[in-house]
Structure formats: structure tokens, C-alpha cells
Amino acid sequence: MCLIDKMPTFIEKAREWIHGSSYPVILTGAGISAESGVPTFRGAEGLWKNHRPEELATPMAFYKNPEMVWEWYNWRRSIVQAKEPNSGHLAINNFQYKFPELTVITQNVDGLHIKAGNRNVIEMHGNLFKARCLKCEHVFSHETTTDSSPVCKLCGAKLRPHIVWFGEMIDEQIMHQITYHLNQTDLLLVVGTSGMVYPAAGFARQVMQRGSKVIEVNIAPTLQGSLNLRGKSGDILPELV
Ligand code: APR
After folding, report:
1. For residue range 174-203, what is the model confidence (pLDDT) as tens digits?
2. How many structural domains does the chain have?
3. Residue 74 and residue 186 share a domain
4. Which of 32, 97, 170, 195 has the smallest C-beta neighbourhood within 10 Å, fewest atoms?
């Protein structure tokens, strides 16, 4: 029997797990926004195909050429600004109807979970629509798509994208919150992430080691879960609740 034939059984199993769960948590990556038209990072159309991460998403890149880095983020912001949440994001609202406390940990910086109305969203890698002062560290809402050398309205120092770059640590408080939820969960739903970037890449293993269940939803096999559902998150998530 091929995987496709088994899918209805897998979906049934996943539903059972979800309904029997007392503390589900969702972890998402770029794949959940793919059906909204936001490019993923890796894969055929991935954002990193044409750009080397170390040229753009590192503190050193920003130090050397802040204008170039801002232009890249301005370009990404201009793409995302026009996008709408898809049925995958919206299905999470139904999950939260059943599980009001459900936390969504996302690696995405596109803000689409919040635009969809999802609650308890932890944006562990920051947000494209925020900027942070290099000196006073104030975080501003940042909708502009053109300015390639924005400055702080409070102290006049340079602003940087409020994004966690390669080589940087996730904010300690945010990591603390994530650890709390991962320690509580009995079911982690991992959606649309390649599992290439730590610490998020280690979350599935971490909860499985505690005996919790992991369901993975992905178009490609990355086998991060104890139950792997192959397909688009926009098709599969609405089927789960
Ligand atoms: N439904 C489900 N999964 C999908 C879909 C879809 N419609 N489209 C793509 N995918 C899957 C791909 O198969 C891949 O496994 O989404 C995953 C996207 O992987 P990445 O592009 O590596 O994105 P992500 O895992 O979120 O990257 C992690 O890397 O560069 C950094 O900071 C960036 O947050 C990002 C981090």
C-alpha cells in the first residue's frame, strides 16, 4: 500500500491524537505560508537559492553593509505586505476554539498567524514589520518598504530589522516561554518546517524524548514526527479539527 492510500488512516489517527491531547502545541515554519505566496527559505523556489545567508542575515553582514541588508528586508516586506493568511493559518483558529490555551510557536517573521487571528503566537525569529534600535534597543513597528537607512525616533541611532539572524541567540525570555510549553505538551504539531535550523529543529526530538507525540505536516518527507502527514498544510490542517 502506498503512502497516499494510507493517508485517510493517518488523518484519522492524527485526529484521535489531537482530540485526546490535553496540551497540544503547534510549531510552524515557512511551509505554512507557502500557500499564501510567501517563498520558503529552502527548496526549489527558496529565498536562500539566490542569496547567501551570510551576506544578508548575519550581524556581520549588517555591520558591513546595512543598506544592502535593509533593501533585502524591504523587498521581503513588500512581498509579504500584500499576502493573506491561507486555510492552514485559519484552521489554527479552529484548533484554538477547541484548545483556547494552545500556543503557536512560529519561526516565521511574516506576521500571517496574527493576521489570521491566531492567538498565543510566539514569533521566535522576530517579525519583518518590526525594527529595533541598535543603541537603546527600543522595538518599533516598521511598515516602511523603502528606507534603507532608518534611524531611531527616540535616540537617532541606526535601526536594524527585529529579526534573529544566523549566529544570534533567541531572546532569553522567549526561549523560556518556549521551553515551558515544550515541557507541558503531550502533542506537538510540526507544520511546514525543514528542521534545518536550531533550536526549532530540535523541538520534535525533545518532546518525543519525554514520551510526547509529534505529528508532522509537510509536503516533503523530513520525518520529524512520530506520525507524518504528507501534503499541503492548507489542505491537511482543516481536516484535523
Ligand atoms: N505545506 C506544508 N509544508 C510545506 C509546504 C506546504 N504547502 N510548502 C513547503 N513546505 C515545507 C517544505 O517541504 C520544507 O520542509 O516547508 C518547509 C520549509 O522549509 P524552510 O524553507 O527551510 O523553512 P523553515 O524550516 O521555516 O526555515 C527555518 O531558517 O533561514 C531560516 O530564519 C529562517 O525561520 C527560518 C528558518
Report:
1. 999 999 999 999 999 999 999 999 999 999
2. 2
3. no
4. 97
The pLDDT of 111-137, averaged and rounded, is 97
Query: For residue 48, what pLDDT is reported?
Result: 65
Distance 194 CA to ligand 1 centre (A): 5
C-alpha cell at 146: 523603502
**Predicted local distance difference test score (pLDDT) of residue 225:** 77
Indicate which residue's Cα is closest to atom 17 of ligand 1.
Answer: 193
Neighbours of 55 (CB within 10 A): 14
User: In the annotation, is 138 catalytic?
Assistant: no
**Ligand 1 pocket member 21 (CB < 6 A):** no
- Copy the grid coordinates of residue 136: 537603546
Instruction: Check pocket membership of 127 for ligand 1, CB cut-off 6 A.
Output: no
* Domain containing residue 190: CATH number: 3.40.50.1220
Is any ligand 1 atom within 6 A of the Cβ of residue 228? Answer: no
User: Does 78 lie in the same domain as 91?
Assistant: no
Cα of 138 to ligand 1 centre, how many Å? 30
Catalytic-labelled residue, pool 89, 113, 125, 162: 125
138-170 burial: b if 16+ Cβ within 10 Å, else e: eebebeeeeeeebebeeeeeebbbbbbbeeeeb
- Confidence at residue 142, expressed as pLDDT on a 0 to 100 scale: 93
Judged against a pLDDT cut of 90, whether residue 221 lies above it is answered with no
Cis peptide leading into residue 199 (ω within 30°): yes
